[in-house]
Amino acid sequence: xxxxxxxxxxxxxxxxxxxxxxDATPPxxxxxxxxxxxxxxxxxxxxxxxxxxxxxxxPDEFFTxxxxxxxxxxxxxxxxxxxxxxxxHETPYFTEAPLPALAGDAPxxxxxxxxxxxxxxxxxxxxxxxxxxxxxxxxxxxxxAALPLLRHLPPPPGxxxxxxxASLGPAGLRVSCYTGPHLRFSRLTPAEPHAWxxxxxxxxxxxxxxxSQRLLPRETPLQLLFIAPQAAHGAIRQxxxxxxxxxxxxxxxxxxxxxxxxxxxxxxxxxxxxxxxxRIPSIHTPGLQRxxxxxxxxxxxxLGAALFASAAGVVAYGTLDATQTTRQDIDRLRQHIANAExxxxxxxxxxxxxxxxxxxxxxxxxxxxxxxAGSQPxxxxxxxxRALTRFxxxxxxRLDWSFDPHDTHTAPRLDLRLALPDAAPDLADAFTQAxxxxxxxxxxxxxxxTLDTDAPRQRLGLRLTFDTPPR
Amino acid sequence: MTPPLARIPPxxxxxxxxxxxxxxxxxxxxxxxxxxxxxxxxxxQALRQxxxxxxxxxxxxxxxxxxxxxxxxxxxDLRQAGLLADTPSHRLAAQLAARPAAASSTxxxxxxxxxxxxxxxxxxxxxxxxxxxxxxxxxxxxxxEELGAxxxxxxxxxxxxxxxxxxxxxxxxxxxxxxxxxxxxxx
Lengths: 471, 187
What we know:
Chain A is of the alpha+beta class.
């Protein structure tokens, strides 16, 4: 019961058990009087951070088994809600627990309601706790708190697994009827601790009560158990029928991990079960249910906020780490930029100066081949001269050269007027071919003249166009 | 009127305060981290663009370097071709042209000739007309060589008529127009 302080309510008042339990520190007791309640409230005010579990161990508890017809889940819930509402009008404090059908019976859904018939026994203490805004984690009736102890007891006979268990506590003798892991009935009778005869008689009376009230079918085998110190077993067996078994209290305490009680009191074992087990049926208390719900909501809120803060922290850490990496990249980029600026300055300084913009120089240079072609008539004339030398019978009568340096699309042009002898009809053709070879120019007749070799001719006009400079 | 804080159920007050503080702290930390990250990313992006621009500029300058070097090589070609001569006036050109022996010995008439320059042309043309009679066509070639040797530009014949004369004088009749071509230097 890490962090949970046990409050034990009996008819005589409330006991505040220290946490952790200590033999050296006895529980603080508060009487059910005005002064006792005031002291309790004052003690609560001094321990605002504690969480409490309340164990109710009073005789004024009424047990009823409500048989429920076979219904769908929704109808069953609605029926139970109406029965709770009806019960709440009679007493606001009750425990509700399911009761499966006994083995051999026809299948039926039952529900056990354990009601505190004197709510004024509990209400003042609950009011004090609510006023102090104390964290009350659960309110449990003593017979329900004993449920986890059942698995350490000898197994009962028969399919119903019914047992009647007697135990002692500060409030007296409690006799509870269990079928399997479920409580069916319980009764607390004030009694002296060592009045074994009275205890045995009460146990047997309870068995008769169960039969007479038909709380158990007559033929149901019922195991009788008495949880008591080993030293009392002899006295109990002398007073009890043979079918009553004794259970060593100390051994049971060791089995469930509880400290060994100094006397016959089962309460330390109940404290242990409340500390270790969370699914023990609890007493329904509307106001504290809401507080408990709000407290759970508050815990969930804190957990959610902590989760968000953790996630935000993780994301922030990752983001800052990424930012750090980005900053390192930025530093490298700055270095690269500085290097690039230096390289640019060097490249700028390395540009050689030109006498005029380079594009104008390019434009002029682009025209150079044409200009050179047009500037070298000498080579063309020499080439023509070589052609004329091969054909001495051909004489040049006129030569016209034209060239426009401004016209980029027109090559230099040379027009030749030649005189030919009559007796050589293919002479023009041969001379034209020779001229082409010598000058590398495009040779074509001038002004409609033809190179038809069939007719004798005395004159020939040829146009030479130089796309490439002549050799 | 109930104050707003008093409406909060007591079991929820402390958890709300703790949760609020935790959420506010987490949100502040996250906002700070995200802001710093976005700022760093923006700066990184800007620097990357700057670096790209500088790389582009560098490439442009390297291209200008290569272009300038090529222009220098072309300038040498233009110089080699004689196009970088100082452009003379037409009259001066005619006076200079009359000095070579070939011109003076052959009774040729040299006079300035229009060159029909165009302002958009990269070249300036200074024209000279040559008319007369030659005894031998080789004299024309000698004249061309001597005119070219004046280095007033690249000598280009614009139009030339060379014809055998039918009468008794020197046999070759020429009527030519030449031009010295040089690079236009004005902006």
